[in-house]
Amino acid sequence: MSDLVQLTKIDGIAVVTINNPPVNALSAAVSKGIADAVAQIEKDDTVIAVVFIGAGRTFIAGADIKEFGELTSGKIICRESLKPLLVRIEDLRVPVVMAIHGTAFGGGLELAMAGHYRIALPSAQVGQPEVKLGIIPGAAGTQRLPRLAGVAKAVEMCAEGAPVKAEDALKCGILDRLVEGDLLAAALALAREVLAKPAAKTRERNEKLGAPDRNAAIFAAARETARKKQRGLLAPLAAIDAVEAATTLPFEQGCQKEEELFTKCLFSDQSKALIHAFFGEREVAKIPDVPKETPTRGVNSVGIVGAGTMGGGIAMVFANAGIPVLLKETDQAALDRGLANIQKNYANSVKRGRFTQQYVEERRKLIWPTLDYGEFAGVDMVVEAVFESMALKKEVFGQLDRVCKPGAVLATNTSSLDIDEIASATGRPQSVIGTHFFSPANVMRLLEIVRGASTSKEVIATCMQLSKKLGKVGVLVGNCMGFVGNRMFGPYRREAQFLVEEGASVEAVDTALYDFGMAMGPLATGDLAGLDVGWRIRKEFRHLQKPGIRQPLIEDRLCESGRFGQKTGAGWYKYDENRKSSPDPQVADLIRQWTSEGGIAQREISAEEIVDRCIYTLVNEGARLLEEGIALRAVDIDIIYLNGYGFPAYRGGPMWYADTVGLKKVCERIREFQQRLGIWWEPAPLLQRLAEKGKTFAEFSSRQSAAT
Ligand code: 3H9
Fold it and tell me: Which of 90, 130, 160, 448 is catalytic?
């Protein structure tokens, strides 16, 4: 018997304990351990019942995802199917009780469903989250789940992948009993209780499989929802097909259909990209020179300077994590406006069913208004969220330096300004760090954490840990204009504008990128964020522009004519009172007029060119950031783009996408653009080198990590 799976016997009941920390992933070795245990149980006539349980913090969080990567990359050539083993468990002549705590996800739930009874702690969760990895359940989950939970619930769980709380799982029939306290004792008691009852095999329970008419409506609605809410993803549709097979085919044939769909999904680029994103999200938490033993500072109270859109949103983020907030403004009217906005946002969350009224009231009580910096004397951390002006930020940090206690973390929510210059306004630059939240701060998952030249490792570790507590994905980046996300976004939006100037319509540019999978087109994004923001920055930095280099001309003109985007009802598009956009012929006329004045030739531009120019400019700038060390690894850039900029997760992020296309091909296309369009398209040196050597960004990053 392996260390990963232990078989013991308690009063005739065989107890199979899975012990593969941290999450008891069902690796090949664990499956082998379970198969060995089952073989022994099959041979042992004295066994009267069986209990399966997980050691440590969970039951089983699913198949070992790392092994999927090894399989699709050819490192291992075959994976033994779990299905026959599950049938053997289901066919055991004695009752089998699955005892669930923590999570029974993916293969974990599939194993649990092969038992005859399922008992769980109320805190447990079950789910088939495979679609989030671009695959579908592969061990008969799509066939057993509808037999336990009914067709509608099974379709929802397999196609959407959301976890289901124990209480709901009990209601829909996935679980048979919830217990408080000692789970093993309760499972043994249940096993004894059901000794005399014939064991119901899930695969033979057909009563919940429904009628064809009703099922047809369920599948049609699910497909429509999947196409809308999981746009571009193949796995949700495959999952629906597989559950449908459970309702039309006998179990074994249904399983075959599931296997075909599973294999197709597993070897798809989408699945590789989503698995990259899953591990990437965990990888970015690991900072090579900030080991996980680095001491952290406790953050149990926070001050926020500025109650505008960002400050208010950030206050909600901390309050939602249970951390009390002192929210400061310069005058009572601004403070009242900020608090009213917070109240409105919370009310909307209640209306949309995201939070309960009680939850919101409790959170709201954690936000305390103040006009006085003096009140920040006791807080553990301050986040400055004032207007993007260096002079103002330095003044704020000077004040904070005077009032805050030693050891307080002093963070700035700048989206582009120099952290070191801000830190220079204090006598403690080691405590100063950037925390770049994305708007709306209480919704967006990304948090760029910006390391200044003097920021201490302790402060970095504190903010990385805090990001998790706040429900954010924290990515550590270096200090430069725009950091990682915005430094790449600048060229991306610039290219979108050049395309419009050269003859592509506003809608054609946005549609091409939307169809590529971006949450929104670049021009519509500008309208949403406010075109005036970039316009002001460009005006401030115009003196730095090199003469003779092409600059976009239309957005500045739109701003000069008062078109700031959604907030003024007009930008690249026009907007009605509900902020619904429509193409504006007036803009098309203005563009024609301005480009003709500027002498820019017009031509037909394909969707392919639009996508290549916009996405490859992201990649090219990403390569520079990587070589400069501003981004630690290619995956850090990917995670930033997936969580902060609406890049489609099933393409894995810009750097992963480029690796998938092949850097040689990407570099050749960039050279083609360079010849035709000039200076902005000089290929990044790192990209050129990797392309020449036939390497990927991922390989470059893993070599860098190994070297540190
Ligand atoms: C599947 O089951 C297919 C089946 O149909 C069978 C087909 C035959 N594998 O997230 P955390 C690692 S597909 C390998 O930080 P938390 C994770 O990388 C699978 N590794 O903890 C991390 O490693 P490190 C379906 C895994 O408490 C460490 O464990 N299941 C796996 O915040 C801790 O993870 C899923 O999709 C895995 N399955 O969250 C569930 N899971 O420390 C995926 C985790 O080196 N997992 N790791 O960075 C999760 O959703 C979360 O990990 C969970 C715990 C909620 C369980």
Answer: 130
